[in-house]
Amino acid sequence: MATLPAGVTSSREILDRYIEGTRLRLREVRESDGTVVRKLGHKVRLAEGPAEVACTNFYLNDAEWTALQALPARLLRKKRHLVHRDGLLVAIDEHEDGTLVAEIDDRDSSSAPVPEWLDVLRDVSHDEDWTGARLARPS
Q1: 8-138 belongs to which CATH class?
Q2: Model confidence band, residue 90 (pLDDT cutoffs 50, 70, 90)
Q3: How far is residue 49 from each of residues 14, 24, 35, 46, measured CA to CA in Å?
Q4: What's the sign of the alpha-carbon dihedral 6, 98, 77, 42?
């Protein structure tokens, strides 16, 4: 079983609501200091599979959030841990069942090799079944 690596610098709670029949996602992020950020995201695949995605976000006020969260959606709850180590930024999502999914932030450069300190059981980079939309469950 994979475990979180040493070097977690911050963690936040995330609730994603994937709006049924659309490519839209409502996201609520709760920071450890109590700050809440809510946004509407739109994702468009630039190629086959989950590797290349264009994403647009709109930040929402309370009234907008309330109106949009009434739409039918599939839910995904997770805790995101950020690790800054050896010049890399790695986001590790801890799902409710304990599954960990890591993503290395390569920015716009070519993919960095996976560091040895990251306990990888399987590479799911090109596996559509491991995208948030596929992992989300009916509300």
Answers
A1: mainly beta
A2: very high
A3: 23, 17, 33, 9
A4: positive
* Separation CA 78–CA 80 (nearest Å): 6
The end-to-end CA distance of the chain, in Å, is: 28
Task: Tell whether the model's pLDDT for residue 25 goes beyond 90.
Answer: yes
Give the number of C-alpha atoms closer than 13 A to the C-alpha of residue 61, restricted to the C-beta side. Answer: 1
Which amino acid, 136?
Answer: A
Contact 106, 112 (CB under 8 A): yes
Domain ranges of the chain: 8-138
3-state secondary structure 40-81: EEEEEECCCCCCCEEEEEEECCHHHHHHHHCCCEEEEEEEEE
Could you identify the residue written with the tokens 């040895």?
A: 116
What would the pLDDT profile of 42-60 be if each residue is shown by its tens digit? Answer: 988 787 766 677 899 999 9
CA distances from 81 to 17, 46, 51 (A): 20, 27, 21
